[in-house]
Amino acid sequence: MAREESKSLEEAAIRTVIDAITKAVRAKDVEAMLAQCAPDIVTFDMVPPLKHQGSQAIRGLWARTLAAFDPPLEYEVHDLHISVDGDIAFARCLNRFGGTKKDGRRVLNSLRSTFGLRKIDGQWKVVHEHVSVPFDMETGKAMLDLKP
Questions:
Q1: How far apart are CA 66 and CA 7, in angstroms?
Q2: Exposed e or buried b for every residue in 59-69, given b needs 16+ CB within 10 A?
Q3: Which residues, 6 or more positions from 132, have their beta carbon under 8 angstroms from its beta carbon?
Q4: What are the tens digits of pLDDT across the range 1-57?
Q5: What's 2-132's CATH class?
Q6: Distance between CA atoms of 76 and 96, rounded to whole angstroms?
């Protein structure tokens, strides 16, 4: 019973990390988002290059991404599943991200996210994130309008 209780506590702590990231994105607060990440985080995001590594790279990526939108930003997490084993965890979810861009265009994209987390000095931190979207094999176009 103690192992299951401990696992539930760890899952709750990881949900808190994901919730903090969600709130930070909605608030366009890059520093609050980075506070949930390890300094050497690596992401495989939808925008080039293929790999973003380290807090400074992520800071620039998210600052550019969020700057393109007027507030409020929309960011929702659906179907969050968490697996924990010791000091390593994975979380996967479906997301909706978007809002009104500075040019007045409305954008709302469906995404798939996987987070790799490690417990560092007693705190769960994101060490890896992979974001993707399905695409039409015939046209090569991203299918950003699917709904979770």
A1: 34
A2: bebbeebbeeb
A3: 44, 46, 111, 112
A4: 576 777 789 999 999 999 999 999 999 999 999 999 999 999 999 888 999 999 999
A5: alpha beta
A6: 5
